[in-house]
Amino acid sequence: xxxxxYGIGNALVDKExxxxxxxxxxxxxxxxxxTLIEEDQLSNLLANLKESFGLKKRAGGGSAANTIxxxxxxxxxxxxxxxxxxxxxxxxxxxxxxxxxVTTKLDQIKGDGITGKCLVMVTDDAERTMNTYLGIxxxxxxxxxxxxxxxxxxxxxxxxxxxxxxxxxxxxxEARNIAKQNNVKTAFTFSDPAMVTxxxxxxxEIIGEGVDVLFCNEEEACTYTGKENLDDAILDLQKITDKxxxxxxxxxxxxxxxxxxxxxxANKVTAIDTNGAxxxxxxxxxxxxxxxxxxxxxxxxxxxxxxRTVATFGARLDKEVLQSVLAKYMD
Length: 331
Fold this sequence. Notes:
- The protein has 331 residues and is α/β, with parallel strands linked by helices.
- The protein has 14 helices and 13 strands.
- The strands form two sheets. It has an eight-stranded mixed β-sheet, with helices on both faces. A five-stranded mixed β-sheet has the order 3-7-6-2-4.
- The mean pLDDT is 95.
């Protein structure tokens, strides 16, 4: 086995802004969700944001990429399959993953087009709202999977955002099938309430007969299952996964297996930016899982790592910060 976790997902460069509630309302932007936009909409909104608030930060992003970076920074061996264009933004993205210690083959497969971008708007209550132009990443296909690297991995990790493109959804389904045929375990994250609201059928296609690990928050769990309370949603979700990880924000998290439920306490912090918190939780938990940690210890590592992310502007942490958190949970 060469990699602990092999991830697939959208390649997006985040441009982050601190905005007001009124800005979102005036521009008809749905708060708290990820909304897909076209290139012209991105250009107009970006110009408006820069003029009104100024760019706070540019960073590599994408849900699964954030998770894979976290695993790598904690010490795991990782591979990330995605798609960028042969442009400045694509170069930035490729180098950003390399610095984080993530193996890719992006230097071999850059295509003509525009690398995807995500405008991340953070309000005073620390809630993140995203408007995303997928660009070339919507063409992420079976041809971009690097199957040899996938079958040399312990886990395949799939982000829910891939469901928005027919081509990418088919790639995710094929990756899951290949993983199953080669005894590679699969982890999947719903990623965003919008994915299970507007693309539920596609999400179910990716999950297929079930996955080994499923990550979601309370809203996503209830929306996907159509249940009014979390307990009922959990009973439904347990039918499609061996290990269900439900994040509950300030209330912590739950890890539910066939034979037990582990409750994880939240780490109290002053929230600045919730962008990337779920990705970080998944990354730290997956690292713990692949290193033989118990669900409780992996959950504690994930909870504190996510809390540190919420207390920081941006979706990722410095490696040194993550390593200092990890040190608390090592023998």
